[in-house]
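Backbone-to-sequence.
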């Protein structure tokens, strides 16, 4: 039971009712945020259409939004937009998962082994700030000009933020829970799986949330440079034929895909960290 008072009057509220009030308040805040975001996007769309219709910008440099949406609808009816989105998402997610499968174990091992940390820390420190796209000619030379080199390029770009976040998260775990688990007889593997990784998971997931947009950017850039199907390849083809409507249609597709991916990651984070204090905000 929880009490809520106003002056000298005290009302007892069940814990379930208080939890329901908090949930309702959270939903109202979420709806309010969504309403603000939708209003901002709608305002930008109206501004885009108005500026082009008033001839304040040359239509070749900025085509009207209505023409872009019409082209997008035609691509939807023909099915080409689904092929491009599927190929770009496949390359981005394949490279992302490959990077996560390598970077997360390596980051954990680096935090637990001084020898591994001594060996990999200089490599990661040098590689992290480097422009990863500069390695694309090497990957094309080593592999091929098709999906293999694109996926490896994406994995290479996603690797560094994930391994850095994993190492930082596992290294920063408070020593008291670890000592408490050891005092109760927990073995090293149990401490790792039941104490260290759960406590480090918020920062690890943050690294994944940073890496996936980086992977999507890398995917689009590699498609532009190497050609072929995909959002980036379609955009660069439209640009070569001076099809500005096609270029901006690709931008709208990228914006939609990025929005869906980012929101999906936020939802997954909320489900995985439902036990964490951040979920109460």
């Amino acid at each position: 039971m929880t009490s809520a008072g106003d002056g000298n009057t005290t009302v007892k509220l069940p814990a379930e009712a208080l939890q329901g009030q908090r949930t309702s308040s959270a939903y109202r805040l979420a709806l309010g945020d969504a309403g603000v975001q939708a209003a901002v996007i709608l305002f930008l769309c109206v501004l885009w259409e108005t500026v082009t219709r008033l001839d304040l910008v040359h239509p070749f440099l900025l085509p009207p939004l209505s023409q872009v949406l019409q082209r997008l609808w035609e691509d939807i009816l023909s099915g080409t937009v689904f092929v491009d989105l599927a190929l770009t998402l496949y390359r981005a997610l394949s490279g992302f998962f490959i990077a996560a499968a390598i970077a997360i174990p390596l980051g954990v091992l680096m935090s637990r082994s001084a020898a591994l940390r001594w060996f990999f820390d200089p490599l990661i420190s040098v590689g992290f700030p480097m422009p990863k796209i500069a390695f694309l000619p090497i990957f094309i030379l080593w592999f091929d000009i098709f999906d293999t080199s694109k996926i490896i390029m994406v994995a290479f770009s996603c690797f560094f933020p994930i391994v850095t976040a994993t190492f930082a998260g596992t290294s920063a775990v408070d020593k008291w829970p670890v000592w408490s688990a050891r005092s109760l007889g927990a073995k090293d593997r149990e401490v790792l799986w039941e104490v260290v990784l759960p406590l480090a998971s918020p920062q690890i997931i943050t690294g994944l949330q940073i890496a996936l947009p980086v992977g999507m950017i890398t995917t689009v850039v590699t498609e532009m440079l190497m050609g072929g199907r995909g959002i980036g390849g379609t955009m660069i083809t439209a640009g070569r034929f001076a099809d500005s409507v096609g270029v901006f249609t690709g931008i709208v597709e990228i914006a939609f895909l990025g929005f869906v991916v980012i929101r999906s990651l936020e939802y997954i984070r909320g489900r995985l960290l439902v036990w964490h204090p951040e979920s109460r905000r």
